[in-house]
Inverse folding.
């Protein structure tokens, strides 16, 4: 399978490491083999080779900060635009891993549309295009007999989407609620251990869980983007951020945490999606709910179903290898059922 | 998809109810339609109609205790043997739902082999054939380009196998441990609430969780059968019951439960599978482990992976509709990828 990658940050590098380290295992156990033939980035440059880029050199160049140091090679093209990579006609799938933009989803959204038009399967770690134009992309994919997959957009490699969409296909999902942002869950967990909000946030930043501008996480927008994706994937509902009731954890104080604890409860930032809408809200849960027991940066989702009661999935919500694994898992699913949508 | 069912107890009836009640939804959303053309049972008789049996009549006859009351119809054949149903050549898949026998897996195992030889996909709720001859059945299926699926054998409809085998295909699973028997988990949960073992067992029997002879559950054999299946599915290891270290909960006293609680722990009957073996043992878990929080008749499994840390799935472990859903989910997976194995 020949791949074009957009974006090559920690997730892209994690994915390339997996392809490098698991090549033999994937060929043996899954009859799967993939070449990265194009990589386009905003800050490191772009590389294209129709026969496949060399993964170790690609990773070293990325770690050095620029593809300029990628070794010269017959057939290598530097600086090619994404549109030209797609138009070249060599690729089987586009993997969109550039940073999420929940306002316009651009330029990623246009790249995704062009890739589908050109007959490429689509795999996304970037939440923007799935959150803002799920229906449009899905119908383009369906019309072409292609797949659009986006396991990495919710709970990283923990297979939320495959669980809800494929494995539970015979069931109706009535609602979903989860802990879909690891940074805020880490902060709340540390506040339970006695830290103030500011101390817990600083610690999360020092550990690389929270960005220097943490607003996307702590105000609930990252989780809200995931709610938009779930609303589409589970209920076929195209919602906008404005349709959601979103608040974060910035107003939660040590006193709130203590009060909840005294009542046998625990604060969690709960993202929920229902057929008629969604929300992201700090919520007090009884300690015996499965979601209440999910600590640290771990994520979780509970799906309420018509025939099988509640099903809860708990796992990593971030991480380069975890997210890289989700992309691999989507590519394996495409190989298993190339024309399903 | 035309189906032959072996066994028509609560699981078979749950499955038939789902097909009856969801026919329109399945056709619309999954482009799926199935007819039950044959049903063979030990106690109710056997029915066969190449064009499909009528589900409501079938369910009513089953509830009346005998297929003798199923209405006469052109083309209906009563009392056909399973081998003749298979040989008739009308069916696409055999669904094995007769009671589990972990000693010989017969007669189900022979039916499964003949079905694969005759070109039928195989779906199992009966643990016996998967636990005792996974490798043989899988290789027969592979040679014929057919699927053998067995989601219902572990955690009923909670999609354990699809999670571990399909969704985590890119990951290596290093080990699995879980609460795979709902009856014993219910008894332990009630003992925590102050009941004696005998009181909790009587309550479980009154609620229909435990059978009048509860030894298969409380001595750990039901969970052990599931460990054999997981050892095959996750690690490609064919183990026998003798290879496992199996004990149940019959020795656990109210005093043990109290002692664990005083130490901040909780007893669970933990079934575990590793590449080099497996076990079923009552185990004291710290309260903050995800598995410790799983109460009542709920089941759960934690998978340790190479790239994604621990992934935990929690859901129903029994129930007619839950298990019927697993069978449907396997049939949907066969429709999505008919030639994958």
């Amino acid at each position: 399978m020949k791949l074009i990658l957009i974006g090559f940050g920690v997730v892209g590098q994690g994915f390339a490491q997996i392809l490098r380290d698991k090549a033999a295992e994937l060929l043996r156990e899954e009859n799967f083999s993939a070449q990265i033939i194009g990589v386009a980035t905003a800050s490191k440059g772009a590389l294209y080779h129709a026969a496949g880029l060399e993964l170790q050199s690609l990773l070293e160049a990325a770690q050095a900060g620029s593809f300029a140091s990628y070794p010269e090679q017959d057939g290598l093209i530097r600086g090619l635009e994404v549109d030209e990579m797609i138009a070249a006609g060599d690729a089987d799938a586009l993997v969109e891993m550039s940073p999420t933009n929940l306002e316009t989803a651009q330029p990623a959204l246009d790249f995704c549309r062009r890739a589908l038009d050109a007959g490429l399967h689509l795999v996304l770690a970037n939440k923007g295009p799935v959150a803002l134009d799920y229906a449009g992309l899905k119908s383009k994919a369906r019309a072409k007999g292609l797949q659009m997959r986006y396991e990495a957009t919710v709970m990283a490699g923990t297979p939320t989407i495959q669980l809800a969409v494929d494995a539970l296909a015979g069931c109706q999902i009535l609602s979903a609620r989860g802990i879909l942002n690891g940074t805020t869950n880490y902060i709340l967990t540390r506040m339970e251990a006695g830290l103030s909000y500011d101390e817990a946030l600083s610690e999360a930043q020092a550990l690389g869980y929270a960005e220097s501008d943490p607003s996307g996480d702590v105000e609930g927008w990252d989780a809200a983007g995931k709610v938009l994706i779930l609303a589409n994937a589970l209920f076929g509902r195209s919602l906008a951020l404005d349709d959601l009731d979103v608040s974060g954890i910035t107003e939660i104080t040590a006193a709130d945490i203590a009060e909840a604890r005294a009542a046998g409860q625990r604060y969690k930032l709960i993202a929920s999606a229902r057929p008629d809408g969604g929300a992201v809200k700090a919520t007090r849960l009884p300690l015996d709910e499965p979601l209440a027991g999910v600590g640290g940066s771990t994520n979780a989702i509970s799906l309420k179903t018509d025939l099988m009661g509640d099903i809860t999935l708990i796992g990593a919500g971030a991480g380069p290898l975890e997210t890289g694994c989700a992309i691999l898992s989507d590519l394996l699913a495409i190989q298993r059922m190339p024309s399903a949508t």
